[in-house]
Write a structure and sequence with these properties.
It contains nine helices and 16 strands. The protein is 29% helix and 23% strand. It has two domains: 3-172 and 285-368, Zn peptidases (Aminopeptidase), CATH 3.40.630; 174-282, Alpha-Beta Plaits, CATH 3.30.70.360. It has a six-stranded mixed beta sheet, with helices on both faces. A four-stranded antiparallel beta sheet has the order 10-11-9-12, covered by helices on one side. The protein has 371 residues and is of the alpha/beta class.
Length: 371
């Protein structure tokens, strides 16, 4: 099966998260890989959800190249699709379908590249494929996997196959996602002096959040950290004093931000009226541009005609946050055939030519990495 046909097959599995339902897709890929000489294991992640870990040529205590991606896709959205999102459609060089860019084309290209590497050119430390359930809602699947699965071993480098249009990226910001909660006392709104208005507490905290400063210098790759309040909710009806209000805080961090210190300082600045609940806490991804693995990826992409990508960082989160941290800061790049601008879009598509190109890129990186 070539990577384009495999992409079409992977799109046919409905893995919208929530609920995910990734097990059938994980098992289909597992059967394909085990039939091509890979040892395959699964790790459960709730009902009808599985992660997949596949290895080939990895010696005891070996440090293989890790290629990683995720099975799940986002919901279809409110806009009507012009084609069935789970029956792929081609139009010229475009292949349409939910997950075509984010990121079933990346999975297909990684799978085909790993299978296609000749035995005599297989790297001495082998390769490991880590495909996760549950990435789209804050990399919760990868976070679960590194905590619960005992055999992830070591690694020499990591490739995350998220959509980059085959332009290698060497970093992205970390994230702390918080829910800020204010409690009050409800009474009839005609007697507000007898109650405690939780919305007023939350509103004061929102203004303080807007004034928060990180005191971090600029990261050459990732820029400055940011903070944003994205959602606010409180009260049940017009004529009651609300006893509950909450809002979300999205902090995007760099290598110069200590997550624990920032969380504690924000908690102090918002004060006792607010309780902060962590939803996501992920470090940034940052690799040295002069690292041999990064240089190999650059050279390989240049050999495929790709230019102008130095010191590229991405705006979105990936499982690279979890895996680079787990593998003790090994070089990690984000590199995949999907189109970043098409991720999560109605009538999502990727370019067929980019899928084929990605197979060549992955395959040559596998062959040439410490072989």
């Amino acid at each position: 099966m070539d990577a384009v046909s495999l992409t079409e097959k992977l799109i046919s599995f409905n893995t919208i998260n929530p609920p995910g339902n990734e097990s059938p897709l994980a098992e289909f890929i597992g059967d394909l890989l085990s039939g091509n000489g890979f040892s395959v294991e699964y790790s459960g992640f709730g009902e009808n959800r599985k992660h997949l870990i596949a290895e080939k040529g990895v010696p005891p205590q070996g440090m293989p190249l890790v290629l990683s991606g995720h099975f799940d896709v986002v919901p279809l959205g409110a806009r009507q699709w012009t084609t069935d999102p789970f029956i792929s459609k081609t139009e010229g060089d475009k292949l349409f379908g939910r997950g075509s860019s984010d990121m079933k084309s990346g999975l297909a290209a990684m799978i085909c590249a790993a299978i296609d590497v000749p035995r005599e050119k297989f790297p001495e430390n082998g390769i490991r494929l880590i495909f996760t359930a549950g990435e789209e809602l804050g990399c919760e699947g990868a976070r679960d996997l590194v905590k619960t699965y005992p055999n992830l071993g070591k690694a020499s480098a990591v490739i995350i196959g998220e959509p980059t249009s085959n332009i290698p990226a060497i970093g992205h910001k970390g994230a702390i996602f918080l829910t800020a909660v204010a409690k009050g006392k409800t009474v009839h709104s005609s007697m507000p002096e007898l109650g405690i208005n939780a919305i007023y507490k939350a509103a004061r905290a929102v203004l303080k959040t807007g004034d928060f400063r990180f005191n971090a210098r600029e990261d050459i790759l990732l820029g400055f950290p940011t903070i944003n309040v994205g959602k606010f909710n409180g009260g049940l009806n017009l004529n009651s004093v609300p006893d509950h209000a909450e809002f979300t805080i999205d902090l995007r961090t760099t290598t110069f931000v200590d997550h624990k210190e920032v969380f504690e300082r924000l908690s102090r600045e918002l004060g006792d009226e607010i309780s902060l609940i962590k939803q996501v806490d992920l470090p940034p991804v940052s690799s040295n541009e002069n690292d041999p693995f990064v240089q190999l990826a650059y050279a390989t992409c240049q050999g495929e005609g790709i230019r102008s990508f130095r010191a590229k960082a991405l705006p979105y989160l990936t499982d690279g946050s979890v895996l680079q941290d787990y593998y003790k800061n090994v070089p990690a790049i984000i590199l995949g055939p999907g189109e970043p601008e098409m991720a999560h879009q109605t009538d999502e598509y990727c370019f067929i030519s980019k899928i084929k190109q990605a197979v060549n890129i992955y395959k040559n990186i596998i062959i040439n990495w410490r072989n």
